[in-house]
Amino acid sequence: MTDRPNYITPTGYHAMQARYRHLLGEERPKLVEVISWAAGNGDRSENGDYIYGRKRLREIDRELGWLSKRMKAAKIVDPAHQTERHRVLFGACVTIADEDNAERVLTLVGEDETDTAAGRISWSSPIAHALRGATIGDVRRVDLPGGTKDYEVLTISYPSPQP
After folding, report:
1. Is there a common fold for 6-76 and 80-157?
2. d(C-alpha 106, C-alpha 10), whole Å
3. What are the residue boundaries of the Transcription elongation factor GreA/GreB N-terminal domain, all occurrences included (predicted)?
4. How far apart are CA 149 and CA 126, in angstroms?
5. Is 73 helix (H, G, I), strand (E, B) or coil?
6. For residues 87 and 56, what is the distance between their CA atoms, to the nearest angstrom?
7. According to CATH, what is the number of the domain 80-157?
8. Each residue of 21-66: pLDDT tens digit?
């Protein structure tokens, strides 16, 4: 893991906390109970509940450790409080068009909250890196695995601040 901050939106951070609480408070205790029950059934070498339970417990503990590290490194950035709303920065929702006028709507979010199907891309991805700092009307060139593409920024928006 790098020493750079883990930029994340408040929504992404709350989702990460909810996942941590779910694993620690619900899933892990239930699994420990199943493992204890399975261990009491005798031979553990051929006990599927015991073997699977121990494997799943290790997976949960690894994920809890990873989530803990990511939350400690988190730097919450609320896009609703962005002062330069005319530029593409962290948390911006951007509509772009390529050379064929195919439009895409992208939101620049933290690495832990990306969902490309929903249009949420990592702020450190190649396309987000190229778009950072752009204003409406700017054309940015992006080097993608399939070749180089030019994108024009059509709109930029940020969430409204909550009172």
Report:
1. no
2. 18
3. 6-76
4. 11
5. coil
6. 45
7. 3.10.50.30
8. 999 999 999 999 988 888 887 777 778 888 899 999 999 999 999 9
The position carrying tokens 């109970």 is 33
Chain centroid to CA 40: 40
Tell me how far apart the alpha carbons of residues 10 and 21 are, in angstroms, rounded to a whole number.
16
CA dist list (Å): 129 to 47, 121, 122, 125, 140? 51, 11, 9, 6, 10
Q: Is 75 helix (H, G, I), strand (E, B) or coil?
A: strand
Query: Tokens in use for 21?
Result: 């609480």
Domain topology for 6-76: Helix Hairpins (1.10.287)
Q: How far apart are CA 62 and CA 57, in angstroms?
A: 9
Rounded Cα gap, residues 33 and 113, in angstroms: 32
CA terminus-to-terminus distance, the chain: 36
pTM beyond 0.85, yes or no: no
- Domain extents for the chain? 6-76, 80-157
Q: Contact 42/144 with Cβ under 8 angstroms?
A: no
Residue % of the chain over a pLDDT of 70: 97
Distance CA 141, CA 147 (A): 10
Q: Dig out the tokens for 106 from the structure.
A: 């992208």
